[in-house]
Amino acid sequence: MAVIGAGGAGLYAALTAAGEGASVILVAATPLAETASYWAQGGLAAALAADDSPDIHRDDTETAGRGAVRRSAANVLVREAPHAVTDLERLGVRFDADRRGRMALSLEGGHSRRRVAHAGGSATGRRVVRQLSAVVAEDPRITVLEPARAAAIWTADGRCLGVVLEDGRSIRARATILATGGAAAMWSRTTNPPGSLGIGMLLAHAAGAALADLEFVQFHPTAVTGIAGREGFLITEAIRGEGATLHDANGERFVDELAPRDEVSRAVHAKMREQHSTHVDLDMRAIDMASFPNVVGALRDAGLDPASTRIPVAPAAHYVMGGIVADLDGATSVPGLYAVGESSCTGLHGANRLASNSLSECFVWGRRAAVAGLQEPDADKTVPLPPAAAPIERPSRATQTALWKYAGIERTKEGLETLLADEHPLARLVARCALLREETRGSHRRSDFPDTDPALDGRHAVVRGERAPVSEPWI
Ligand code: SIN
Fold first, then answer.
1. CA 44 – ligand 1 centroid, Å
2. Which atom of ligand 1 is nearest to the CA of 122?
3. Which of 70, 113, 172, 261 does the annotation list as catalytic?
4. pTM of the model
5. Closest ligand 1 atom number to CA of residue 359
6. Class of domain 221-317 (CATH, top level)
7. Pocket-testing residue among 126, 236, 352, ligand 1, by greatest number of atoms within 8 A of Cβ
8. Does residue 355 line the site of ligand 1, with CB under 6 A?
9. Is the pLDDT of residue 47 over 80?
10. Residue range 141-193, pLDDT digits in tens
11. What is the pLDDT of residue 214?
12. Under CATH, domain 2-216+321-373 is a member of which superfamily?
């Protein structure tokens, strides 16, 4: 089996496949510390508390997703996330405990219960990815190619046979799993590591796989702004879960800080515009600084002490709900090709992801795709090796600025049409999906279509090749 990407989803898929006896090649483009999973602060959302249940977790997921969550995908997540947490513990991840020694669960926006398992306060991604990498390094069935980048998906007769790397090597595999992360670094203002450029989405698209929902891009409301060296640094929502508050230029609170993320980001954006301000302020003074050592440390390193000063924040592109269309096992529309984590789109997140569902998704779908991939027929060894392929195109600064300007928190038909002429293919795909959705829903706000159209509930913008995107119902 070939796994492309060594963040949480890729590492866990590789470990699952190896645990089933498969030989795995894990292709890692970036050092550990540059994967989006490593940067994840929140944690894994899972119904673990006595007052919680998978159904309540699903209801919260659907409410946040604004009528666009695919229920079958949400059911898979909420039922399997608790097992993902226990399995990570088996692999050596140590989640934070409360004073009585029970798993500590934090609260984030849109959750009606304390539900987020975390490690090292807000260093969850770092702790999980480090531990899984250590386990992978010890597994003799997993070969890690690092640094190595995928240049093309190898297909023959409509089936995926493996992957072609930028250095010219080819990997033939029974199943190929894309776990390449998201695309939020395509936007000029982002919380993401620089490699989150939708590489997997472009690889899959070129191989003929369907993409969907690229108009749904989540903007995180509390990314640091105006501080040299810390632009876009994320301040986890869990800090608001512990009581941090947002204030406008007059010092007034203006939004329920624990509403779903689309609502909070939009309120921040509107307030900044109304007050001609570059930011609003996050007041963390009432929280226990020791609970969030990495956030507090990073702010202090930048010369801001959150124990005495309010922190200037503004929205930044954080997560793309859309991606490579994948079913409940991560299978794409190309046989033999799977997609998991942020590179995929199962419909789980709808139009606005519920906080911390994404790390849970990585492990739930990482396992499912590995298990399903092992059922694929043996790779056909008679097919000759594919030719070398050119590297996937990276965006220019102009593309990143244009995405922020025309496919940011507020969009219009004219702005999106400008993007249709952008030099980067992913920018054009985002514009095509966003133009099709003539309504406002979740993270997708059209100022020319300010209302939600109930006729579009449960519908997804699906793009195949160069054909016009189509709106499809998913169940
Ligand atoms: C956060 O901690 O606020 C981000 C976590 C997430 O994106 O779910």
1. 10
2. 2
3. 261
4. 0.96
5. 8
6. alpha beta
7. 236
8. yes
9. yes
10. 999 999 999 999 999 999 999 999 999 999 999 999 999 999 999 999 999 99
11. 98
12. FAD/NAD(P)-binding domain (3.50.50.60)
Owner of token pair 């620089």: 194
Rounded distance from Cα 345 to ligand 1 centre (Å): 18
Q: Please state the rounded mean pLDDT for residues 105-119.
A: 96
Q: Which of 237, 313, 321 to mutate to test the pocket of ligand 1 (most atoms within 8 A of CB)?
A: 237
Find out whether the beta carbon of 238 lies less than 6 Å from any atom of ligand 1. Answer: yes
The CATH label, of 3.30.450.40, 3.40.640.10, 2.115.10.20, 1.20.58.100, for the domain at 397-473 is: 1.20.58.100
Ligand 1 centre to CA of 168 (Å) is 37
Q: Which atom of ligand 1 is nearest to the CA of 235?
A: 3
pLDDT of residue 35: 82
32 has pLDDT over 90: no
Is residue 126 annotated as a catalytic residue, yes or no?
Answer: no
Return the domain boundaries, the chain.
Answer: 2-216+321-373, 221-317, 397-473
40-44, 287-291, 437-441: the lowest-pLDDT one? 40-44
Per-residue tokens: 350: 């709808």
Across residues 329-339, what is the average pLDDT? Answer: 98
